Amino acid sequence: MLAARIRSLAGRCRGAPTAAGRATAGALRLCSSSNVPDSARDAEEAERRMLEQPLSLSELGLDASFGWRAPPEENAKNSLAATVRHELGTNAARKLRATGRVPALLRGRGELERFSLDIDDVRRELRTPGFLSRKFDVVLQDHDGSKRELVAQPCEVQFHPVTDDPIHIRFRPVADSA
């Protein structure tokens, strides 16, 4: 019975033109007729071998640049380097984005800080699961060289409608002990 089920799955995998079908085919390792067993004992052996062998990204239809990162440890705080913004408005934000920066804002508890973040740092953190639920140590550097650190949590991210690049991030302050 197990052999019949494997044969039916293998038949579905052979003609899979979609990426999801290719990923299923690679994950099941059933697309070649040599992997289809003739007896129940062979089926159990094949299933055991499939579970023992790790799957590569190419077998799942993915490549190394798909960008997902493992989630960070619980209560881990990440650091983001930021530069204080003194120029405000739409044109100033456009100029920042043209130089590879993302305008950001920290608002709450009577605080209002405007700063910019490097777009590569933001993209890297956005690819990590749980971006909106993590605390960040935002290290603000002013133009005169002075630095200060704020603990903040992102609460809103705005994305460009075509390129899906982040165009603005809003943070809220978080107590360091929370």
**Annotation, overall tally of beta strands:** 6
Estimated share of beta-strand residues: 25-35%
Give the averaged pLDDT, no decimals: 76
Could you name the ranges where pLDDT drops below 50 across 5 or more consecutive residues? 13-25
Structural class: alpha/beta
Radius of gyration equals 25 Å
Multimer state = single chain
The end-to-end span amounts to 55 Å
What topology, given as strand order, has the largest sheet? 1-3-2-6-5-4
State the order of secondary-structure elements, H for helix, E for strand. Answer: HHHEHEEHEEE
- Using the alpha-carbon principal axes, give the shape: elongated
Helix content: 25-40%
Please summarize the sheet with the most strands.
6 strands, mixed, barrel
Describe the model.
The chain is α/β, with parallel strands linked by helices and 178 residues long. It is 30% helix and 28% strand. It has a six-stranded mixed barrel. A hairpin with a 2-residue loop joins β2 (101-108) and β3 (111-118). α1 (2-14) runs antiparallel to α2. The longest helix has 13 residues, at 2-14. The chain is elongated and about 75 Å long. The relative contact order is 0.13.
